[in-house]
């Protein structure tokens, strides 16, 4: 399976202000130490090797949207955050080259940051497109219709031309969709949220965002050990550092890098992707949290096989 991250920011899409770009340029110039480059290509080559990701790259600012390739050829997409707009543009391009116009969406929940890309999803206007929305929430259709009511948006849902099907799954169910074996589980979050486990050919990807893990509720955590079990890639809500979740942000419905690593260790997962980044965190903050996560994983690993901790960013592709 190939996993493509179109949106990785939590709660609110962000665009970094000019000062952030200016900071990157200044740090790059200092790091270059007076070196000269023949052309932009040579500068790119040098920067790629010598600058940290937070200076040369960016984690991006679009809200949750993750594509999974590798099923029966239909599009498979988790959540409809603002990253969905870019996905829709790319999907339309691929459809012109013959890709089937079938879209399976898997909704973690219906909070605004997870559905706000839908009004800007071009393929919804394609009368030849089929859009199947899988959700744990019976009110998924209502949520999508409501955000396109006239008071909020100029294009009503009924103007969309694609053929829509909404399917509600019960937590604990396992079903087949788009050629993948899919399991759904309930998660602790305001108005509930759901995690999905996708399996194909002995490989597994887990999408588990907007999920608060209570350190004192071990029964619930054991259910997650089973859900994440031996996962090749676990995409996990790691919005805050542990200090924040314990002191300031308990009951805000999100989790920390530390809790995600503990869960993945207990589950024997192979790779963890930090996801749903806090909107106020700069690229340097996120990179630092990533580095601390790697250090923490090494510290608590003991005799377990290593868990690779990666940090999701808009545009990242991961193969499992
Ligand atoms: Zn969210
Ligand atoms: Zn939420």
Name a few traits of the molecule.
7-stranded mixed β-sheet, binds zinc ion, 10 helices, alpha/beta, 320 residues, single chain
Kindly report the average pLDDT value. Answer: 95
Low-confidence stretches: none
Number of E-type strands: 14
Q: Mind summarizing the main beta sheet?
A: 7 strands, mixed
Structural class: alpha/beta
Strand content: 15-25%
Radius of gyration: 20 Å
Estimate percent helicity.
25-40%
| SSE order, one letter for each helix or strand | EHHHEEHEHEHEEEEEHEHHEHEE
Oligomer: single chain
Bound molecules: zinc ion
Distance between the termini: 5 Å
User: Could you say which overall geometry the principal axes of the C-alpha atoms support?
Assistant: globular
User: If helices are DSSP runs of H or I spanning 4 or more residues, what is the number of helices?
Assistant: 10
Spatial sequence of strands, sheet with the most strands = 6-5-4-3-2-1-14
Describe this entry's structure for a reader.
The protein is 31% helix and 24% strand. With 320 residues, it is α/β, with parallel strands linked by helices. The strands form two sheets. A seven-stranded mixed β-sheet has the order 6-5-4-3-2-1-14. It has a seven-stranded mixed β-sheet with strand order 7-8-9-10-11-12-13. The structure holds zinc ion (2 copies). One zinc ion binds next to loops.
């Amino acid at each position: 399976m190939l996993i493509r991250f179109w949106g990785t920011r939590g709660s609110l899409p962000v665009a970094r202000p000019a000062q952030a770009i200016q900071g990157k340029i200044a740090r790059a110039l200092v790091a270059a130490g007076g070196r000269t480059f023949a052309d932009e290509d040579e500068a790119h080559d040098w920067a790629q090797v010598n600058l940290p990701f937070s200076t040369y790259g960016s984690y991006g600012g679009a809200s949750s949207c993750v594509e999974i390739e590798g099923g029966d050829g239909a599009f498979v997409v988790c959540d409809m955050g603002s990253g969905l707009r870019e996905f829709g543009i790319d999907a339309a391009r691929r459809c012109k080259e013959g890709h089937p116009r079938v879209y399976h969406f898997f909704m973690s929940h219906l909070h605004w940051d997870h559905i706000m890309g839908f009004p800007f999803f071009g393929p919804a206007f394609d009368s030849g497109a089929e859009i199947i929305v899988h959700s744990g929430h019976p009110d998924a259709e209502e949520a999508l219709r409501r955000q396109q009511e006239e008071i909020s948006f100029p294009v009503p849902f009924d103007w969309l031309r694609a053929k829509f099907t909404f399917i509600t799954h019960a937590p604990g169910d396992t079903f087949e969709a788009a050629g993948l074996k899919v399991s759904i589980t309930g998660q602790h979050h305001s108005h509930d949220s759901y995690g999905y486990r996708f399996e194909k050919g002995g490989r597994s990807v887990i999408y588990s965002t907007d999920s608060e893990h209570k350190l004192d509720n071990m029964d619930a955590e054991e259910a997650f050990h089973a859900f994440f079990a031996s996962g090749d890639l676990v995409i996990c809500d790691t919005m805050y550092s542990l200090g924040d979740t314990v002191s300031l942000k308990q009951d805000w419905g999100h989790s920390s890098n530390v809790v995600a690593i503990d869960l993945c260790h207990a589950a024997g997962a192979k790779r963890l992707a930090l996801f749903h980044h806090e909107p106020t965190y700069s690229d340097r903050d996120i990179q630092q949290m990533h580095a601390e996560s790697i250090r923490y994983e090494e510290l608590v690993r003991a005799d377990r096989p290593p868990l690779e901790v990666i940090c999701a960013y808009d545009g990242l592709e991961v193969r499992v």
